[in-house]
Amino acid sequence: MWMAAAGRPSRTSPPPAPFSKLAACCFVLLLPILHTEQVPVAEALSIGVNYGQIANNLPSPARVSWLLRSLRISKVKLYDTDPNVLRAFLGTGVEFVVAIGNENVPAMVSPAAAQAWLEQHVVPYLRAGARITCITVGNEVFKGNDTALQAAVLPAMQSVHRALGALGLQGRVNVTTAHSLDIMRVSFPPSAGAFDPAALPHLQPFLSFLSATRSPFLINCYPYFAYKDDPARVSLEYVLFQPNAGVTDTYTRLNYDNMLYAQVDAVYAAIQALGHTDVEVKVSETGWPSRGDPDEPGATPEHAGTYIRNLLQRIEMKQGTPLRPATPVDVYVFALFNENLKPGPASERNYGLFYPDGTPVYNVGLHGYLPLMLESHGARQWR
Question: Radius of gyration (Cα) for the chain, nearest Å?
Answer without folding.
Answer: 21
